[in-house]
Amino acid sequence: MLSVNFKWLCILISVFFLSACNEDLIPSDKDERLSVEEGSIGNQVGQIAADFTAQDSLENEIVLSDELASNDAVVIYFTMWCPLCDSHMTSMRQNVKPQFPSVRFLMVDYVTGSIAQSRAGQLSNGYASETIISDIGRPLFEQFDGNMAVTIVIDSSGEIVMNESYKQSKLLSVLNLALQP
Amino acid sequence: MKKVLISLLFSGSLLLPLNTLAASCCGGGSASSLILPKMADSMFDYSFSYEKYDGFWNVDGDHIDDPEGSSFEQYRSNFAYANRLGYRWQASIQVPYVWNKNIYPEKESATNGLGDTVLGLWYESFDDVKCVWKVTGWKSLEPAIYFGTSLTLPTGKSMYSGDVTQDNDVTGRGSYRLDANLLIDKTIYPWSLSWALSYGMHIERPVNEEFGRTVEPYDLQLGDRISNGITFGYTHFLESLSTVTVSASVNDLREGEGKINGLKDASLPSIKKQSVGLSLSYSTPIMDWVYKVSLNHALQGDGRGENFPTTDIVNLGVTYVIR
What we know:
The complex is a heterodimer of chains A (181) and B (323). With 181 residues, chain A is of the alpha/beta class. Chain A contains six helices and seven strands, in the order H-E-E-H-E-H-E-H-E-H-E-E-H. Chain B has helices at residues 2-6, 23-26; strands at 42-57, 63-64, 71-84, 89-104, 107-114, 117-124, 144-153, 177-188, 191-202, 205-210, 213-221, 225-237, 243-255, 259-260, 263-264, 271-283, 289-298, 305-306, 308-322. In chain B, the strands form two sheets. A twelve-stranded antiparallel beta barrel of chain B has the order 1-3-4-6-7-8-9-12-13-16-17-19. A four-stranded antiparallel sheet of chain B has the order 10-11-14-15, with no helix packed on it. Chain B is globular, with a radius of gyration of 20 Å. The chains are: A alpha/beta (181), B mainly beta (323).
């Protein structure tokens, strides 16, 4: 027969109270995104991305406005060369990029701090054919409120249409929408 | 960063070879278990572990080095308590506290917080202790079999909790998980062998923020997970009748691809980790105090893991059994 031990129960209840402030215990499905002024410059969905100039791991200059002028959209992915980043970059390279040849994909290394290190990470992780931006001093990280796996999609008008952690299904649907005539 | 995946290992150092003692005789157990000896009323367990990262396996199972100049460490303090509820029933709770220290050339962080809490419930399929000194017939070969369930509560800070603005800050996974556990243990002194199997399902949850910023709400379900571990041990009795036990273990952890809005999504990839462990424990003659040290080493060879960091873990622990 089961018997109740009150000491045990007290410990359980204490833990629940101690962790009651954690939102993961009772997660919310409310849409709490703040509205933004359309056409304003910023990093939120609906805002216009400020132009930037950056260097890739081969020391080429990457200018956002130039990329938007020659492509239908730009995808920016923030990587820190971790296992999850690698799986996302593989997903993008294998499952997303082939469907959108007119979209420019840029991977941003915001952790290694030098072009040489970005290049080393690029090669050792097997992304020699991708464009890796070396975000020295992290200006892009700051501009887009970046983080590991954050994925930004900017359409040809310069509007940000996605800014959140990578999800393959979301990226596909956002790009399909952005490229609609 | 990799802490997001490493949070898999929270909830009581799930891959550590903790079954340093034959469970039905002296307590111990493995994985998400904290097994109370048959004749004991309750048990306190405290352990402290240090985990050092050394590269990772990529999506193809190839081992990749971390960026030059980077260093990732994690410390975990794990408090656990087990209590007998009935002659064949026992329950346990494990509460970890986690410290993260991460260094990249361009980025450093040091954070800490409560990890994910694990509640466990076990049923013992036997009435008498199954550890024997001599095989006298088929009956003495009967193993101790435990059936258990455990619930992981997302009490840690996850990327979805609103408490975390940087990826390095996470101390938990952010999802409830329900596990079915099986532990089969046989000791014929001085040898012991145990097998621990666990199958877990994450509960789907809504997400409306990531790393402290609001996103379009979606439903998240992490993949099902299976962990498997075999431990082989040898116990040496000292003149004082205290014991020293050495054990070696092999562990395998896998988790399937996660789902977003009910559909599998490559952004939540499947993972795999294979590791080996070695542990040493000392128990007092009446087996009320047990002191443990263990090492866990991820096998770095290609194919030994997928989408997961390779780490080495050192764990120090002490257990106090109340009879």
